[in-house]
TrEMBL record:
It comes from Paenibacillus tritici. This is DUF1295 domain-containing protein. The chain crosses the membrane at residues 31-47. It comes from the Bacteria. Keywords: Membrane, Transmembrane, Transmembrane helix.
Length: 69
């Protein structure tokens, strides 16, 4: 089993476990931040698996934070 597949399984587990807690917060901004960063992380892992060029981690975190502020 490679590390990318293990990381994707872990990210899916985190989504399943944390989604109810995020919904209970009733905060659209927090939900957008969580789902946005989760989606970007999954896309980065998939891009790494397929050997596509990708953003550096701080670049995509900064882009999400700019959208939310």
């Amino acid at each position: 089993m490679n590390w990318s597949l293990l990381l994707l399984c872990f990210l899916l587990f985190i989504l399943i476990v944390q989604a109810p807690a995020i919904r209970r917060l009733h905060s659209g901004r927090d939900a957008a931040a969580f789902y946005g960063i989760w989606t970007l992380t999954v896309l980065a892992v998939l891009a790494e698996q397929t050997k596509l060029p990708q953003f550096r981690p701080l670049d995509w975190v900064r882009s999400i934070m700019e959208l939310l502020s």
